[in-house]
User: What shape does this take?
Amino acid sequence: MIGTIRSKQPKTYPILLLLTVILILSSVNASAGPPPDFRLQDLDGNWVNLSEQLGDGVVYVTFWATWCVPCRREMPYLQKLHEEFADKGLTIIGVNTDPPGTTSKIKPFVNRYKISYTTVLDPNNNVLDKYNPTRELPYAVLIDRDGNVHEVFPGYRKGDEVRLREKIETLLAVGGEAETGDAE
Assistant: This one.
């Protein structure tokens, strides 16, 4: 028998490692070109197509769930960014990933957090799986004015909001009417 090295790892370890690598490589990466398009309903039943939002301003797509503690920490900050930069070309789309049957809880949740940026529903995680098969939440994709993925933001940790703000300000200033930070 070739390779009789004894290992405490289960025989499925190489398969799990390979699957993990495939999942990581298949998720949306920075500089990956255009993101996968999606068409999802918002909280009022209107259809939102990502492709219709691209190519003009900067788009931030964030995947979240009501049970996700880091998502709840990030949401007020995203609302502030929306209020500050929406008229300068920033569009934020929150993609809720709560399971089917919980839709009635999402609108009150959004209202409680005073979220006014677009919220769409992905109850079966079909869109989330295209972007992030590992389903880590929150998970966000920053898309530049040309409609290409600029950077991905897996998870949320205190201090990430500073880096995100800098990225958004930079992207809004490129090819847009945005100020570079000299005026207040």
The beta strands are 39-41, 47-49, 58-64, 90-96, 118-121, 139-143, 149-154.
